[in-house]
Structure formats: structure tokens, C-alpha cells
Amino acid sequence: MLGFLVAIAAGFATPYLEGPVARPLVKQMEKHITLEASETRLVAFIVAMLGAGVASALLHSGMTFWVILGGGLGYFGARLLVALREVMDARRDS
Predict the structure, then answer these.
(1) Rounded to an integer, what distance in angstroms lies between the CA atom of residue 42 and that of residue 18?
(2) Residue 62 burial (C-beta neighbours within 10 Å; 0-12, 13-18, 19+)
(3) Direct distance between the N- and C-terminal alpha carbons of the chain, in angstroms, rounded to an integer
(4) Most exposed residue of 26, 29, 44, 51, measured as fewest CB within 10 angstroms of its CB?
């Protein structure tokens, strides 16, 4: 369970890792492969999930499935909450 929570936090932190962590990595990678600008966020997500996976392994908590699910929920969490609120408001109004 703790690995799942760590993964949610890592997914949520992805946009904040884009500048200080992913951009330097992308600059180093561009010497060898071509990356598009939109792929910088993906690199940040990969770094966040690697961190969550290592933390999950060190804490002996969380299966791979739950770490991946937690990362996805954390990454899309803000948008999912907005969509859920819209559905609840629509039900309340009708």
C-alpha cells in the first residue's frame, strides 16, 4: 500500500520534475537520439516512476501493478477530480 501512495505522489510530481530533472537528461540524450519537445514530460514521468519503483522496493511495499496504477492516478489525478466534480454537479442539477 505504501508503494501505491509513493507512486501517486511521484505521478503528481511529474510536472515539477520536468524542468530541473528531465530537461538536463533530454539535453544529454539529444546527443545520441532525437527527441521531440513533447517527450520531455514523458522523460520526467519515467524518472518519477523509477524513483517510485526504487522506493517501493526499498520499503518492501507494493506490487508493480499498484505502482503503475498509482503513478497513472497521480499523473492524471487533478484532471480526474475535475471530471468527477463535473459528473457530481450534473447529477445534483438534474
Answers:
(1) 9
(2) buried
(3) 37
(4) 29
- Cβ atoms of residues 7 and 71 within 8 Å: yes
pTM for this entry: 0.81
Measure the CA–CA gap between 22 and 24, rounded to whole angstroms: 6
Contacts of 16 (CB under 8 A, 6+ apart): none
CB 17 within 8 A of CB 50: no
Instruction: Look at residue 21 in the predicted model and tell me its pLDDT.
Output: 93
pLDDT in tens, 51-79: 999 999 998 887 889 889 999 999 998 89
